[in-house]
Design brief:
eight-stranded antiparallel β-sheet; five-stranded parallel β-sheet; 22 strands
Length: 446
């Protein structure tokens, strides 16, 4: 097991990693930017090192500064969390070159599955269902037009690297496809340093279902069942739950097994999520693979009892997976609400500022993952998520009621948050019946 781990992240996930390390007897070194200098969670680390100014490019995205901090602190490993450098194969490679273990996949495995075009190739070989579309990256406009004509409109242009909706364009005819192909390439290049895009079939109505998987360095891979993340806006998730409601269990089990097969075929060690879209006939199509721990990992932990953070650290240290597939079962239902410092009434405008009121819910089955305390200042430099409310109950109906109760108890001020919106969604008839798709929230808020 590692002696000392550097946490190359901030906020809620930095604290989550810190706690997992401490329970494993590992010392922690937490890096921070000047914008996070007064963050209270830093006091819980064995050591904290400033790596630069507030802008992420000068701190949390600066590989040389993070490696310098790791060498100064004499760490054995680096945990990237999610976001920032978590899915950068070059960062994983630099760690290896510096003889520092990267708690995540090898750069080779990350490139196999992190690039959407390459991941689709692997998926086809592993018999994982994928969308019809271009076999590889689109080089010229006419190639995109030919693919679209073959699979039929609407189609979607996607960036091969990255995510979050950048480099993504939906096209309903040839004219819009021709107009958007170069725009998507330019946006992808600006966002990810890679202008590669591809074209695939677009589902007008679909649910977003993803499978949590973990592989080890001994050739094993397991799945921890699925999560439904359909309640989203602008490709950003607002509510996640597990297991997915109203899905045929036999079909879902086959999809979960396919996801584990894909990860195993890529010789992948660490936590990953294989994302799918499901149509109204419950046909599944792979979207992409997230080669890191997900924000919504706690809902899976709640229904399986598997600590994903501790397991991924053990795997990175060379230990085999501590559980076998046959030992993992679904227990009850879990829901996660991402508590964001945003104003949903103003198109989710970020709401930075000091938090004076911070009253947390409690009671049976209620978990809060957050780095916030009263007096905390939400900086404008980073993602607006300030915490996660995770609720577990014996049934989905009970989980919804418990989540609503917890949201009523959750008081944050004076900044704006998504709490009132999420409480409204817990009372929404379509959500209660599981009858939503990925565009439902945007339609509801129009």
């Amino acid at each position: 097991m590692f002696r000392r781990v550097l946490i190359a992240n901030r906020g809620e996930i930095a604290l989550r990693i810190m706690r997992a390390c401490q329970e494993l007897g590992i010392e922690t070194v937490c890096v921070y930017s000047e914008a996070d200098r007064d963050a209270p969670y830093l006091r819980l680390a064995d050591r904290a090192i400033c790596i630069g100014p507030g802008p992420a490019r000068d701190s949390y995205l600066n590989i040389s500064r993070i490696i310098s901090a790791a060498e100064i602190a004499d760490v054995d490993a680096i945990h990237p969390g999610y976001g920032f450098l978590a899915e950068r194969a070059d960062f994983s490679e630099v760690c290896r070159d510096c003889k520092i273990e990267f708690i995540g996949p090898s750069p080779e495995a990350m490139r196999r599955l992190g690039d959407k075009v390459e991941a689709k190739r692997f998926a086809r070989a592993a018999k994982v269902p994928v969308f019809p579309g271009s076999e590889g990256a689109i080089e010229v406009e006419e190639e995109a037009v030919e693919v679209a004509a073959e699979i039929g409109y609407p189609v979607i242009i996607k960036a091969a690297a990255g995510g979050g909706g950048r480099g993504m364009r939906v096209c309903h005819n040839e004219a819009t496809l021709r107009t958007n192909i170069k725009k998507a390439q330019q946006e992808a290049l600006a966002a990810f340093g890679d202008g590669s895009v591809f074209v695939e079939k677009f589902l007008e109505s679909a649910r977003h279902v993803e499978v949590q998987v973990i592989g080890d360095k001994h050739g094993h891979a397991i799945h921890l069942f699925e999560r439904d993340c359909s309640m989203q806006r602008r490709h950003q998730k607002v509510i996640e739950e597990a297991p997915a409601p109203e899905v045929d269990r036999k079909k879902m089990t086959a999809v979960c097994e396919a996801a584990a097969r894909l990860v195993k075929s890529a010789e992948y060690a660490g936590a990953a999520t294989v994302e799918f879209l499901m149509d109204n006939k419950q046909n599944f199509y792979m979207l992409e693979v997230n080669t890191r721990v997900q924000v919504e990992h706690p809902v899976t932990e709640m229904i399986t009892g598997v600590d994903i953070l501790k397991t991924s650290i053990r795997v990175a240290a060379g230990e085999p997976l501590p559980v076998k597939q046959k030992d993992i079962t679904i227990r009850g239902h879990a829901i996660e609400c991402r508590i964001n410092a945003e104003d949903p009434t103003r198109n989710f405008m970020p709401s930075a500022g000091r938090i004076d009121t911070w009253e947390l819910p409690g009671g049976p089955g209620v978990r809060i993952d957050s780095h916030v305390v009263p007096g905390y200042f939400v900086p404008p430099n980073y993602d607006s998520m300030i915490g996660k409310l995770i609720v577990h109950a014996d049934s989905r109906a009970e989980a919804i009621e418990r989540t609503a109760r917890a949201l009523r108890e959750f008081r944050v001020g004076p900044i704006n948050t998504t709490i009132d919106l999420q409480l409204r969604l817990m009372q929404d008839s379509a959500f209660k019946t599981g009858g939503i798709d990925i565009h439902y929230l945007e339609r509801l808020l129009k």
